[in-house]
Amino acid sequence: MAFDHRKYVPFQPIAKTDRRWPDKVIEKAPTWCAVDLRDGNQALVKPMNVAQKQRLFDLLVKLGFKEIEIGFPAASQPDFDFCRKLIEENRIPEDVKIQVLTQARPELIERTYEALKGAKRAIVHVYNSTSTVQREQVFGLDRAGIRDIAVNGAKLVKDLAAQHPETEWTFQYSPESFTGTEMDFAVEVIDAVTGVWRPEEGQAVIINLPATVEMSTPNVFADQIEWVCDQVRHREHISISVHTHNDRGCGVAAAELAVMAGADRVEGTLMGNGERTGNMDLVTMAMNLYSQGIDPMLDLSGMAEITEVVEACTEISTHPRHPYAGELVFTAFSGSHQDAIRKCLALRNEGDKWNVAYLPIDPFDLGRRYEEVVRINSQSGKGGVAYVLERDYNISLPRWLQIEFSKVVQQSAETNGGEIDSLSIHNLFEQRYLKVRDEWALRGYDLHRDEQGVYAEVTFGRESAPMRLEGRGLGAVEAVSAALEKRFGLAIAVEAYDEFALGEGTRANALACIRLTAGDKLCSAAALAEDTTSATLQALLSAVALAVELKAMGESQEAKADPAISA
Ligand code: KIV
Ligand code: ZN
What we know:
Blueprint: E1 31-34, H1 36-42, H2 50-63, E2 67-71, H3 77-88, E3 97-103, H4 106-116, E4 121-129, H5 132-139, H6 143-162, E5 168-176, H7 183-197, E6 204-211, H8 218-231, E7 238-244, H9 251-260, E8 265-268, H10 282-290, H11 303-314, H12 335-347, H13 382-393, H14 399-416, H15 422-434, E9 442-450, E10 453-460, E11 467-473, H16 476-488, E12 492-501, E13 510-518, E14 521-529, H17 532-561, H18 563-566
Parallel strand pairs: 1-8, 2-3, 3-4, 4-5, 5-6, 6-7, 7-8
Antiparallel strand pairs: 9-10, 10-11, 12-13, 13-14
Helix pairs in contact: 2-11, 4-6, 6-7, 7-8, 8-9, 12-13, 13-14, 16-17
The structure holds 3-methyl-2-oxobutanoic acid and zinc ion.
The site of 3-methyl-2-oxobutanoic acid has 10 residues, from strand 5 and strand 6.
């Protein structure tokens, strides 16, 4: 059988009884390091050219990154050239440190320093693999052999840096495949490296602990980080960094728990581009902090620009459901969600803390528009449809008409499939409720009140052949209904009737909506007019027009069914 779980062994967590990290809360942003131009780039089908690298570097600077890994200059000529370009063209802001990666091999370390010549400040990031599987199966070395590679690399890094005192150097070491390394051995190698670099004497040192492959649940990774933080020498003089990958889909969670467990620094990429399932997504982690009221120390307000640049440089499109950045992540299609969002937004006052159902953050903060929040498809309900009409056309519908019209919209969405935009919703409303046929267009009215109620005279129809009717009732609607009942032989009962003054920016001043029964027929209509009486009478005429039409259709159906009548 090909699909057999017995092929795999469970990850062995470290035995730890003194864990403190579960009670910790993240209160400030870690130091960020963006590795898009190195780890992200190494994962691309088509690696970035120098122009793309420059564009992404400029974006990272603009977003506020102060540490940016720009490449692996000893392994790639474009990375070498890009590093030289940044230095020679003085393109690195004063408060930004570039970082470059190198394996702990002498020729590569030497070439790395060539690439960095003239830099004002730089982080030299040296690594070698320490995991059991790599030791045994890739390098064929024992623990001492692997530790020697790290120590020799660290020595050369230190010696070459000493030859260039004009640069402010930071040294970074990664025990690559840290998560697959025995923790006591990881600490042994780290201590051996810091023994060379001497952070306690003032040398800036970063120890980066990569989940090169994410192998366990994030809590197990957090245990590893807390354990290393407790065990390494000179902890107070070194910056502990984490670099998580996303193989199990928990890259962000692992980095967050690692920060709770003591990590000071986090490496990742925008949108999580990176090898296999990607690196830790900086956008998601930073926005998670932001949503908790913590300054992420990055400015992600121009999310459209971020996704545009990342997509152009990586040639990978952003998933519409990508946290915070995707096209659909602030959109509600479902009726109950739309209702809740609409109510919360209506209750919100300027300056209030954000507390809106279904929206973890204010989309506006990322340059999104509220228009995108409520979108309509066949899953949407009356609230969403009403919200769109009100928001875009200033048309407020009574509840009974919201319910009725949302079914019309739903039917149209089901027939056409997919989304139905605001203009189409308005067109549907116009067609179904507002359209006035010439024969039923109100031309004039005269209303008088006396001791018996209201006397109404109403004129409607084509200009060439208007119809004038008279009726009496307790109010205008009843009086005109009575006239229409008599003329068309209908039994009219008005079931619901609402009128609204319209907001500024509309041609008409009033909207009236009416629902009546005529025999067994239920007919609704609405009308826009300059005054409420005209709107009301037109809505009544349009509803009666529908009743007359339905009656005529019914009669012709009956005639067809009974030849005796038609004869
Ligand atoms: O994932 C990894 O282990 C790396 C190292 C080189 C830090 O990218
Ligand atoms: Zn990596």
